[in-house]
């Protein structure tokens, strides 16, 4: 099966310099950045390293995912974030597992038996585990991590899910719908390193509210 690696970016030049040189372009069939009008040299740095860059026409992570999937020429799409939270060496592991089991989704889990997040605070660690628990309870899942965006998914599966979430609600929505529709999903335990190039933009209170609201909405409107 063929794989496209989609890398959503917005002002990630520091991460691009540190992370992308560790990537082997032979791991996948197609690679490109979907860039949201970066102004810090992200595009130039990625181009120097041999990566194709596509300018995002819309806004937000959800839109970047959709545009990347639409433009991909492969059967599977792998989402990779160059902010330091995703270890490049997991890319071939995700692709290999996807090919072995004909899964709908294969994802890295930070909270499986051998997983760990080096980037979590006490608040985000609690929140990650709590929302994973709630998704499993409400939607009958057995996942250990419902909020991490390091995953590979069948292109057709992604398109069928009709996602409208944004940022972490997007990742949670993928997990919720994978449970709802009984998608064949596999988790690989992994390490999430600390973020490179500044602090995360996530606001815990607002994000918690948005994730809670989404769970209720998806439960009420099950289809």
What does it look like?
This is Histidinol-phosphate phosphatase family protein. It comes from uncultured marine thaumarchaeote KM3_89_C12. This protein has 223 residues and is of the alpha/beta class. It is 41% helix and 17% strand. It has helices at 13-19, 42-48, 61-71, 90-101, 122-139, 155-161, 168-180, 204-220; strands at residues 3-9, 30-35, 52-55, 76-79, 105-109, 116-117, 151-154, 185-189, 191-192. The strands form 2 sheets. It has a 7-stranded mixed sheet, with helices on both faces. A two-stranded parallel sheet has the order 6-9. The protein is globular, with a radius of gyration of 16 Å. The model has no long low-confidence stretch (mean pLDDT 95).
Task: Draw up the topology in text.
Layout: E1 3-9, H1 13-19, E2 30-35, H2 42-48, E3 52-55, H3 61-71, E4 76-79, H4 90-101, E5 105-109, E6 116-117, H5 122-139, E7 151-154, H6 155-161, H7 168-180, E8 185-189, E9 191-192, H8 204-220
Parallel strand pairs: 1-2, 1-4, 2-3, 5-8, 6-9
Antiparallel strand pairs: 4-7, 5-7
Helix pairs in contact: 1-2, 5-7, 5-8, 7-8
Q: List the total number of helices.
A: 8
Low-confidence stretches: none
Number of strand segments: 9
Instruction: State mean pLDDT (0 to 100 scale).
Output: 95
User: In CATH terms, what is the fold-level topology?
Assistant: Spore Coat Polysaccharide Biosynthesis Protein SpsA, Chain A
Q: In terms of structural class, how would the helical and strand content be classed?
A: alpha/beta
Shape: globular
- Order of helical and strand elements: EHEHEHEHEEHEHHEEH
| CATH superfamily (homologous) name | Spore Coat Polysaccharide Biosynthesis Protein SpsA, Chain A
The radius of gyration is 16 Å
Distance between the termini: 30 Å
Number of discrete domains? 1
Oligomeric state, counting identical vs distinct chains: single chain
Per CATH, which architecture?
Alpha-Beta Complex
- What does the main sheet amount to? 7 strands, mixed
Helix content: 40-55%
CATH top level is Alpha Beta
How much beta, percentage-wise? 15-25%
The largest beta-sheet arranges its strands as 3-2-1-4-7-5-8
Protein name: Histidinol-phosphate phosphatase family protein
């Amino acid at each position: 099966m063929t794989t496209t690696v989609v890398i959503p970016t917005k002002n990630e030049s520091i991460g691009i310099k540190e992370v992308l040189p560790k990537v082997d372009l032979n791991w996948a069939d197609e690679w490109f950045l979907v860039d949201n009008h970066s102004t810090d040299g992200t595009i130039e740095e990625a181009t120097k390293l041999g990566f194709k860059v596509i300018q995002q026409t819309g806004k937000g992570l959800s839109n970047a995912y959709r545009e990347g999937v639409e433009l991909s020429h492969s059967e599977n799409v792998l989402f990779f974030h160059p902010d330091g939270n995703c270890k490049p060496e997991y890319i071939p592991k995700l692709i290999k597992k996807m090919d072995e089991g004909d899964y709908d989704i294969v994802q890295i889990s930070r909270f499986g038996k051998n997983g760990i997040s080096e980037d979590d605070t006490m608040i985000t660690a609690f929140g990650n585990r709590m929302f994973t628990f709630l998704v499993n309870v409400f939607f009958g899942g057995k996942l250990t991590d419902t909020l991490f965006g390091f995953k590979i998914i069948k292109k057709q599966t992604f398109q069928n899910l009709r996602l409208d979430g944004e940022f972490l609600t997007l990742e949670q929505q993928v997990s919720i719908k994978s449970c709802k529709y009984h998608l064949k999903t596999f988790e690989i335990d992994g390490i999430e390193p600390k973020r490179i190039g500044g602090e995360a933009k996530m606001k815990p209170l607002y994000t918690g509210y948005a994730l809670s609201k989404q769970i209720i909405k998806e439960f009420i409107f099950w289809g």
